[in-house]
Structures are given as C-alpha cells and as structure tokens.
Write a structure and sequence with these properties.
Elements lengths: L5 E8 L2 E6 H24 L9 H21 L7 H16 L12 H23 L2 H4 L9 H36 L8 H30 L21 H6 L6 H40 L4 H31 L3 H4 L2
Antiparallel strand pairs: 1-2
Helix pairs in contact: 2-10, 3-7, 4-6, 6-7, 6-10, 7-10, 9-10
Length: 339
C-alpha cells in the first residue's frame, strides 16, 4: 500500500501549513464528479412529470423514496427533514470508499477526512440536542446524579472519535491487506485473486462502512431526542509488554528470530480465530432481530438500528484480527527489533 503523498506545502502562519496530499486530490475529484451529477439531476428535475415517463426519473424517485423511508424508520417523523444531510453523507463516504477501484486515492484512508465526518455528526447531535432540550441540555450532563458529569462528557467526546476511527480503521485495514497481497502473492495469483478481494474490501465493505456510519450517526441523534440515554464506558485491561529477545535467549537451541517467528505464527492463528466468534455473534444477532421484527413489525427501525450497532462493533473486531494476522505473517515488525 502506498502511503499518503504530499504534493505541495502551503505555509499559513507560524508552524502551521496547508498540505495538498493525494487524499486531498481524491476528495476534489470525487467532489467535482458529485457536483456535476447533482447539477445534471437538477436540470433534469425541471422536466419531471407527475407520472414518470423516463427511466431516469424512476431511478431518482426510487432513491429519494428509499432514503426518505429509511430516515423516517430510523430517526422518526420529527427528524425526517435531516434526510437530505444524511443522504449526502452516505453518498460521499460511499464514493470515497469506492474511488480506489478507479486508481484514485481513497480519502477515507486519511484520518483527517474521517475525523471531519465524525465532527460533523458531533456538532449536529449537539445542535439538535440544544434545539430540543433548551436549558435542559446542561442538566442532562449530570443525569442520573452529578457525579456522572465527567463520564457523560467523556461519552460525548468519544462519539466523533469512535465514528471517525472506526471508518478510518476499516478502510485502511482493507488497503493494508491489498498492499500485502500485491506485494507477497506470486504473479500468477495476482490475476484473479485481487479482483475478488477488491470486490469485498472496496465494493462490499466500503458500501457497508458508509451505511453503518450513517446509521450510527442517525441512532446517536435519535437517542438524544426526546430522551437521553447514557451508556457507561468500560475500562480496558492493561497488558504488560514482554521482551521476546530476552525470553528467547533462555531457551537452548532456539534462536531469537525463530522464537519470534513461532510466537508470531501462534499469534496470527489466534487473531484469525476472532472471525469465528464474530460470525457466530452476527448470525445470532440477525436471527434474534428477525424474530423481534416478526413479533413487533412496528418497531422494525429501532430493532434494525440496535442490531447494526452490535454487528458493526463485532465486524470491526474480525477485520482488525485479519489485519493483525497478515502483518504478523508477511510484514512482521518484531523481526527488525532483534537487531
């Protein structure tokens, strides 16, 4: 995988510079294409009839109706007016994720771009929260008791961080894997295998990441209006680092490099096992969601949103496990530490 290339540095003030990078150019190219398509649809819109007479009008109306129904089922009638914004978000992220298929650097492999998406959701959440709750907005931070104020603040700050890093990590992980495949696969396997993997990592996974980001953003907003639901944060355990080279020296007949490679192979196998739990968990969640929708069809939107949040977290774990396994097997950074 090629890194982000810097084409031009524009000094601003002090130590601050404006960088024109490969992902910046990708953003401009995708933006120009979308603006052209938007102008084209706008021009064609004047010729639309009450009863569609062209396939183009049918497609446009189908997209609009689908998005409108999706927003209403996820956010409710009260917030349906923000469907225009989220339609733009999902289309933009989807195009960003797919543009690598055309050789255009994907902007979502740049943390600055995904952080911008996360911050846009963050500011929209708090704008609507203040608009609907008024002065109760500040009271919500000390619910259920004032001692929860620090945790509630951290929980709100974590929203744009989790959204941006999740999108960035998934897209970048796919790019890293494709780079490893192109670098280590023999020539005869580079003909058909990468095409199938591009179909997954760029087309399917890229589309899913755009959809999941949009659904999560809608769900975060919906949870603030009219009621605010607080979710506690769990502490993650801390692990102590071990010096592998020192451990290897205590084992007679085994070199440090062999010891590291053996442990890396075991670690890669354990990392790949994460996918089994993810598959079982997502299948179980989908089955229970189908049962819930069958019992309460009117709650379909809430059920699907909740299921997708759980599946999104689980699916991220599996992708990270695959990335870790591929790095340990083909680009092990621990070998260089031995020297």
């Amino acid at each position: 995988m090629d890194g982000i290339k810097v084409y031009k540095v524009i000094p601003l003030f002090g130590d601050f510079n404006l960088l024109i990078t490969s992902t910046t150019l990708g953003t401009w190219i995708v933006g120009a294409i979308l603006i052209f398509l938007a102008v084209l649809v706008r021009v064609k819109l004047r010729k639309f009839k009450d009863v569609p007479e062209t396939g183009f009008q049918n497609v446009v109306e189908l997209i609009v109706d689908t998005m409108d129904n999706f927003v209403k089922s996820t956010m409710g009638e009260k917030l349906a007016q923000y469907g225009n914004w989220f339609f733009g978000v999902i289309v933009l992220i989807w195009c960003f994720n797919l543009c690598s298929l055309l050789g255009i650097p994907s902007p979502t492999t740049d943390i600055a771009q995904t952080l911008a998406f996360g911050l846009s959701t963050f500011f929209l959440i708090h704008f609507l929260w203040i608009k609907n709750r008024k002065l109760k907005y500040f009271k919500d931070y000390i619910e259920p008791i004032p001692v929860f104020l620090p945790m509630n603040i951290i929980g709100e700050v974590a929203i744009p961080v989790s959204l941006s890093f999740r999108l960035f990590g998934n897209v970048l992980g796919g790019s890293i894997l494709m780079g490893l495949i192109y670098g280590y696969f023999p020539m005869y396997l580079k003909i058909g295998v990468p095409s199938a993997l591009h179909a997954y990592f760029d087309a399917f996974s890229g589309s899913m990441q755009a959809f999941i980001f949009t659904v999560l953003s809608m769900t975060f907003i919906r949870n603030k209006i009219p009621d605010v639901k607080k979710i506690g944060l769990k502490r993650t355990p801390q692990y102590h680092k071990e010096d592998l080279s020192m451990a290897a020296e205590n084992i007679n007949g085994i070199t440090a490099e062999a010891f590291v490679l053996g442990c890396s192979a075991i670690g890669a196998g354990i990392a790949l096992c994460v996918g089994m739990g993810t598959g079982i968990g997502e299948g179980y969640a989908a089955g229970k969601a189908v049962e819930a929708v069958a019992r309460q069809p009117e709650a379909r939107g809430a059920i699907m949103s909740t299921m997708l949040i759980g599946d999104a977290v689980a699916e991220t774990t599996a992708i990270y496990g695959l990335v870790v396994a591929m790095i340990l097997l083909f680009a092990n950074p621990l070998i260089g530490k031995l020297s």
